[in-house]
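for the record, two folds in this file. i put them one after another cuz i was lazy. first one right below, seq on top, structure tokens after. the second one comes after a little note so u can tell where it starts
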Amino acid sequence: MNSTAWRKSSRSTPDNACVELRVQVEAVGVRDSKNPAAGALGFDRPAFGTFLSAVKAR
């Protein structure tokens, strides 16, 4: 992924347990805000929609 800025989830908790997103034209990145050096998951936009639906269903 390129240098587009990462954004922290609006649902982050006071102890900073959250994810960050990097939204681009054709891709979305997701990473752990407490350990960004561990890497990120990358999705094309349709796959991210599927991922998000699955997370919301839990």
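(here's the note) second protein begins now
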Amino acid sequence: MATAAPHGPWTPAALTPVVAGALLVPLAAALGALVAYDPALGVAGCVAVVFAAVVLLSLPVALGGLVALIFVSGLPGMIGVPAASTAVVGFAWFATLPARRAQLVALRGPGRLALWAPWILFAWMGATAAWAPDGGLAASRMWQVFAAVVAVPIIATGADRPRTVRIVVAAYVAGAAGIVLAAIVLGPSSYAHADPSNGRLEVANFSANLLGATAASALVLVPAVWRMTRRADLRLVVAGLGALLLYGLVGTQSRSGVVALAVAALAALVVCRGRRRAIAAGIAVAVAGLALFVALQPGLLERTQGGDSTGRTDIWKAAVAVWHDHPVGGVGVGNFTVVSPRYALRLGALDAPDFVTVDPMPPHNLVLEALAETGVVGLALVLLAVGACVAATLRAARLLGRHGDDELAFLAQLVLVAQVAIVTAGMFLPVTANRQLWTLLALGPALLGLALRGRSRTEALA
């Protein structure tokens, strides 16, 4: 006698051809109508559907895909793709959050603080919107910040296995190399926010300096991806990605990117104890490659020898003046560019006054951006959020080293160095709402959760 199928969680195998057809036909019709209405929205919808399927099969792979897709924002046909993929993965993450209770319970100290601090910062930014002169601009900025900081809880608790962390790191490197390749293929004219700047590599939503900072932070992680890759042919691909990132850094002619990479090299020598010979060898290879690409593209050397032609110091002066008038709560999130033209006369002679008056730019500094727009309270919360994530990464690296997990400890060390690189670049760029920054920071509590769970298992067996 036939027995009834046991009741249990839904799986893709439970779909009969008839049911699958009943689901796919209206879905295909809806996507077709969406493409006809707006091709960009249609592409985003297709990505969301594909992501939904991937999530059902493997959330770790979907998480890696999400990290890779944060780099495509602004590329032709990719409008809305990062948001759609974030929504799908975020929904799957929330639905399966109870299954990650062990990761949440394990997080203590800086790891738990790293989960909450970005949202406290987000709440304070929302509060400053109440006195912002332009409420619409404040709302737009809040959405950008939300899209960035949401990566922290998703990655910190979703990357609850060493394999998932490795996938996320590899996806970050691949995504950064991909956007550099897009800049090379599409050319500077594809930059969305301004006219091309003297042939420097930039594309979509990535200015030359932001692209340089991204390339520098990803370069730091290449040795970790190399080490986790065993096959010779795949290692050749990893080496190619590293060369592409180095070429991209030179092509952006970004002095801030070079400074970030130099600071990262020093940090690696300090952090990666026991591996300093290997780190020194890696630095030598990077310097040799940098010298070769600079010889082929001397623009970076010429910009390094020149003065500040970017107007960055003028913007910094304006940010300090704005903060002086609004010390506690700032002028309101996203509203520095609204008020900065009023300070032009007070600042005196400027090297590039257009960046303050005609086409005002945001503060090109993480600290000054927080002070001018959200006041000293906002700066304290920024430092708390960033510091908690970095502290979690440092503690994770130490614990993993004590446990004897050399590969994962090395990965944690290089994640820490990559965080140092992108925060250093943030001293010259507006990065509060940068998704790459918060993705790297989110790896800190994720690694700490793994390390603490590993220590608990070791103590239980002792």
